[in-house]
Structure formats: C-alpha cells, structure tokens
C-alpha cells in the first residue's frame, strides 16, 4: 500500500499508474514501421506475381496434356478437323472416307448411289432409308414425315429387330455409315470400284500374308456374312487362299465386314489375275532330318484296332 506524500496528489498517482502500459514512440520508430510496411507490401506483390506465374505454368501444362491426348487420339482429332472442313462445303462422302478408320474404303460415286437399281434390297436392312440416303447425298431433309413411308408399313416386321440394333445417341450417323458400307460393297464390284480398290491393294494398306511361304503377298478384305453388325472384316490371301483375322491394333477391326461383302476378294483376284497358280506349300515336320508321315496318326490308329481285333478273335 502506497502512502501519498504531501508533494504528490492522489490524482497524479492515478494518472501515472494508467500510463504505465503505454510506450511513447519517437520519429525514428515511425520511420522503421513505415519501412517494414513497405517491405511487407513488396513481399505480398511478389507472392501474387509468383502465384500468377504458377497459374500460367499450370495452364500451359494442361494445354500440353490436352495436346498429347489429342495426338494419341488420332481418330477423335480427325473427326473434329473434318467436322470443320465439312462446314466449308465438304461432301459427306468425302468427310466420311477421310476418317482415320475409313481409309480402307473408297469414295462411291453419287451417280451410283442415285441409281435406284443399285440400291434394291437395302431398304429392308437399315431403318429410315430415305432419311439416311439424304444424309449421304447432302440433300435437304424437307419431308421428315414422309421419310419412312417405305419402312413402317410392309417391312415393319422385317426391320423391327434391325431398328432395335441401331438405337443409340448417334443413330442417324451410324445408320448412314452402315448404309454407305452396304452401298460400298456393291460399288467395289463395278469396274470403277475395282480400279479404286486396286490402288488400295497396291499400296499394301490391308497388310501382307503372315505365312512365310506366301512371300509377303498382299491381302484383300473380305467377310463371311453380308449381315450388318455380324463380324468385322477378315483378310484373304490370294496366294494361299487362306483367311486371317486383322491384328488387334488394326483400325480395320472398327469397320463392319458387310462394307466389303463376301464376293469382292475372289472377284478381285480373278479380275486382275492375281490368284496363284502355284501348288500350295505346307510346312513339313521332321525329326533328326527324317520326314514325319502326315498320316502317321491314322496308321497307328489302324494298327491298334487291328491288334485289338486279332486279340479278341483269339479269345473266342
């Protein structure tokens, strides 16, 4: 407890106690605080600039990733590019045949497509035939209500399963591709179609025969069925007359076998005389230089049966 002297009043003591926690700042102290605040502001600005640079770098990295993905996805890239080209008066047929997976096909003449004789029987294989034909020929679809006159009356039962098969998001585009493929299989049997396919064949786009005895003979596309969505194309060797599956990574697997049909490969080989007249050569198995008889199994089987028959007769 403090005692108040005569020289000091109680009010002075209270004023001194209230000012004990306060610090008196000089001009030098104010200058130091100003410098510190300026440094803090500079650091904040530098941090903001670094964050902006990082954001730009991340955007560049993302753009590079998209570019890499676009390069890996060539088919999607081509589709986007060709969509832009199509806006510049590129026909549907030209656009379709320039897609990466459709480089195995040739461009069908529009005159061939417009000839109704060449399209006989196709009305029952794809739904909405008239609408798809207009898509292929780049014609305006003015009569939407009358497009399906040939489809929904007499052929309704025949095509009901076919219509179910083609229901998806890109129904019209996929159906148009299927119809074009069916027309393509007929066009390549004509003189002009054979000439165009011959150029494809000479380029070796369909690959070569895997058999060593065929000496890298070029292959031809073929199919085992004319039915859409049945099986992808097979490859036919005119030298050994054998058929092979395309490699797993081949874009040919993305096509339908009906785009080439069952008759093209043999007809092409006969038309250009590329069918081999040589006798087929097969691998001959040997053991220590001795040829193994191809009928050895049948011979052994007959000998065993003969021994069993003789033993059964002796027992009787």
UniProtKB/TrEMBL annotation:
> Known Pfam families for this protein?
CK_II_beta (PF01214)
Q: Which InterPro entries match?
A: Casein_kin_II_reg-sub_N (IPR016149), Casein_kinase_II_beta-like (IPR035991), Casein_kinase_II_reg-sub (IPR000704)
**GO MF term set:** protein kinase regulator activity
Which residue ranges traverse the bilayer?
Answer: none
Q: What is the lineage of its organism?
A: Eukaryota, Sar, Alveolata, Apicomplexa, Aconoidasida
Tell me the superkingdom of the source: Eukaryota
Q: Where is the composition biased (Acidic residues)?
A: 8-21, 141-158
Q: What is this protein called?
A: Casein kinase II subunit beta
Residues of the region (Disordered) are 1-21, 141-166
By sequence similarity, the record places it as follows: Belongs to the casein kinase 2 subunit beta family.
Q: Name one GO cellular component term.
A: protein kinase CK2 complex
């Amino acid at each position: 407890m403090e005692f108040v002297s005569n020289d000091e009043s109680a009010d002075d003591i209270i004023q001194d106690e209230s000012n004990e926690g306060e610090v008196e700042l000089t001009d030098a102290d104010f200058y130091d605080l100003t410098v510190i605040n300026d440094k803090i502001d500079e650091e904040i600005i530098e941090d903001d600039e670094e964050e902006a640079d990082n954001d730009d770098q991340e955007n560049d990295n993302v753009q590079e990733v998209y570019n890499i993905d676009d390069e890996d996805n060539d088919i999607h890239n081509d589709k986007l590019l060709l969509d832009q080209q199509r806006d510049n008066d590129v026909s549907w047929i030209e656009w379709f045949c320039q897609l990466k997976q459709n480089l195995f096909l040739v461009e069908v003449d529009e005159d061939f497509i417009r000839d109704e004789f060449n399209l006989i029987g196709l009305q029952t294989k794809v739904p909405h035939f008239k609408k798809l034909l207009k898509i292929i020929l780049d014609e305006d679809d003015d009569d939407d209500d009358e497009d399906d006159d040939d489809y929904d009356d007499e052929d309704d039962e025949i095509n009901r399963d076919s219509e179910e098969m083609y229901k998806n998001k890109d129904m019209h585009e996929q159906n148009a591709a299927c119809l074009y493929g069916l027309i393509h299989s007929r066009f390549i049997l004509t003189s002009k179609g054979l000439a165009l396919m011959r150029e494809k064949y000479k380029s070796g786009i369909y690959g070569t025969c895997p058999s060593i005895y065929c000496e890298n003979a070029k292959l031809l596309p073929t199919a085992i069925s004319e039915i859409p969505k049945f099986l992808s194309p097979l490859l036919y060797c005119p030298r050994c007359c054998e058929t092979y599956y395309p490699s797993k990574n081949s874009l040919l697997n993305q096509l339908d076998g009906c785009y080439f049909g069952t008759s093209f490969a043999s007809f092409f080989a006969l038309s250009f005389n590329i069918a081999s007249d040589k006798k087929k050569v097969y691998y001959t198995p040997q053991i220590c230089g001795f040829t193994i008889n191809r009928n050895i199994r049948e011979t052994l089987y007959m000998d065993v049966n003969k021994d069993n028959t003789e033993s059964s007769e002796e027992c009787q």
